Each structure stands twice: as C-alpha cells, then as structure tokens.
Amino acid sequence: MCHKRREVSILITVPSELAAVGLVVGLSSRSELHVLATTHSLNQGLAILQKLAPEIVISAPEWVPAFEQLLHEGEIRTRLVAFGSRQHLGMIAEETAQVACGYFSYLSPAGTYLPLIDAVSHCRLPAMDSKHKLCRSCATRLSLRPPKPNLSAREMEVFVAVGKGFGTSEIAAQMGISVKTVESFRESIKSKLALGSAREMSAVAAEWCRGGFS
C-alpha cells in the first residue's frame, strides 16, 4: 500500500526576487514541499506567518530575529532557516543559531540545501530548541557555523575584534592583555593567513565578519 508523504508548507521571504525564484525552482523537486508564498518584504512575511502559520520560514538572516519574536509572542510552531547572499553567517552566527535550524547561501547548490530542508521538515521535536540534545546533534546545525581560519582561539578573538574595527589598544583592554601581546597575535595571524600588511589583515578580517572569506 502506497502512503502519501505529508506535505510541508514553506514561506520564503528574502529581499532578492531572483534568489527566491531560484529557491522555488529547487524546492519544486520535492513533491512534499509546498511553497505557500514568497515575499521580499519583512512586514509582508510577518503578516503571512501570522495568517498561514507555515511549518518552515526561509528568511534573510537579518530578518530572523523579527520572525523569532513573532513566533515567541504568538506561540506559533514554525521553524526558521536562514538564507542569505553571503558564504556564511560571520559574526551573527552564534546569535542566529539560537533561533534558526540552519543556513545556506544564494550560491548553495540544490544538492546542499535540499537535504537541509528535508532534515528540518522531518524533525521530531515540536519546535526548535537549541539546547535540546536532538538540536545539538542535528547535522543541519553545522551549516550555522562559519568556517574558521587556521587560528588559535585567542588569535581568532583578535581577528574578529580587528574585523569589527577595534584598534590594538582597545583589543588589549577588552581581552585584558598587553598591547605588546595583541601585536604579537596580529603578527602571528598575518603569518598564518599569508597577509602582507596590517591594512590587508583588517580588510580580510572585516570581510570574514560580514560573512565572506572562507
């Protein structure tokens, strides 16, 4: 006896119309995935969420917090997946991971993001819970982690601070170390990443924080 697969409703809300169209085409290869609507406005997305309560919202990363707030206030059981133009989530990875099940970019091939959407749609939890053991062990969570350069934890801390635009003395004060130690970390970072100057390192660090440079 053939059992019909359960249909999973999806709302796509991203600024790029072209990206949304490509995503709809990709999702159409899964007969059980039903796109209820696509919108390129946060306010329209929030309105559709309240009206139709889709099971999954695929949203621009910068709109995820607004969707999460509405879900919390309305007690709506909808899962969030971030979909953006950058290679990874950069600085907002940790914040996004608290509310979203996964992330993929506009350039991700269908073979990468379709299994992610499949996993989210078949999750056994009633709602996403980043502290639950099933969430912590879920393979989709790996997509939320930005690729890290080959740096130690302390070097990475300095690298991110540089990317945020902080100077050497400010970084030293934040980390509770000497300016000389920060300078030593900076030289080590430049060496490991084959960067020729402080300006080049600042540019690379800033790009990583924005979600580029893998």
TrEMBL record:
PANTHER family named in the record: DNA-BINDING TRANSCRIPTIONAL ACTIVATOR DEVR_DOSR
Domain (HTH luxR-type): residue spans on this chain: 144-209
Protein name: LuxR C-terminal-related transcriptional regulator
Organism of derivation: Tahibacter harae
Gene3D superfamilies: Winged helix-like DNA-binding domain superfamily/Winged helix DNA-binding domain (1.10.10.10)
Keywords assigned by UniProt, alphabetized: DNA-binding, Transcription, Transcription regulation
PROSITE patterns, per the entry: HTH_LUXR_1, HTH_LUXR_2
